[in-house]
Amino acid sequence: MRVYRAKDYKDMSRKAANIISAQIILKPNSVLGLATGSTPIGTYSQLVDWYKKGDLDFSEVTSVNLDEYKGLPGTNEQSYYYFMHQHLFDQVNIQERHTHLPNGMEPDSKKECERYEELIRSLGGVDLQLLGMGHNGHIGFNEPGQAFETGTHCVDLQESTIEANKRFFASSADVPRQAYTMGIKTIMQAKKILVVVSGEDKAEIVKKAFFGPVIPGVPASILQMHNDVILVGDEAALSLI
Ligand code: F6R
Q1: What is the top-level taxon of the source organism (predicted)?
Q2: For 24-46, how does the pLDDT look when each residue is reduced to its tens digit (9 = 90+)?
Q3: Which listed residue (87, 100, 138, 153) is catalytic?
Q4: Pocket of ligand 1, candidates 32, 36, 195: which has the most ligand atoms within 8 Å of its Cβ, to mutate?
Q5: Domains along the chain?
Q6: What ipTM score was computed for the predicted complex, to two decimals?
Q7: Phi and psi at residue 145, in whole multiples of 5°?
């Protein structure tokens, strides 16, 4: 694993964007695995800036996102489809037909998960997977305790996640109860993995995930077994390592 220490969030975003940008320049038809959440927003914004300056071309890039809420249409502002269009897809020249997320509106979980796994396979796998990490070490919606060998699957969201997301919805009844997510196995099949972490509140889990034992109780700890992982974090998030 390579660790890049950044001064602050902006520097972390620029370093992460640099790695993604290098990937696209070296292989213009790269398959990028993308994440939502607050951490990668600055990375996307930096990529958009470079695109607008003419330094980056997404015309041949394909993307597959990690996860999506089940039951939310893309028009819902809380859907990951909406997020990705807002922060990246609508601001660069990636082709809409080259962008993929699990279809939250497909009620048949088995069918949707098989379709998504097959899609990733048919694209030849993910060249570079961008990941954020939750405070409990979750990656995608893979919460602690799940088996490492799962592919794309439908998860029941934990009560704490529903509680945390409540503020974004009119009422807690509107918060989705399930989500589709790439599994740990799917994530581990990516050729290269880029993890972004920011803030003091992530310091403890960064230490556990990358320097503690590899256990299902800390899903991100499995990344220690991948042979091409880059961790980019700001001083605060890397303060304990
Ligand atoms: C996002 C995702 C999540 C986030 C994680 C960290 O697609 O799958 O695992 O990466 O919850 O979120 P932030 O970046 O908001 O701390």
Answers
A1: Bacteria
A2: 999 999 999 999 999 999 999 99
A3: 138
A4: 36
A5: 2-234 (3.40.50.1360)
A6: 0.98
A7: 100, -15
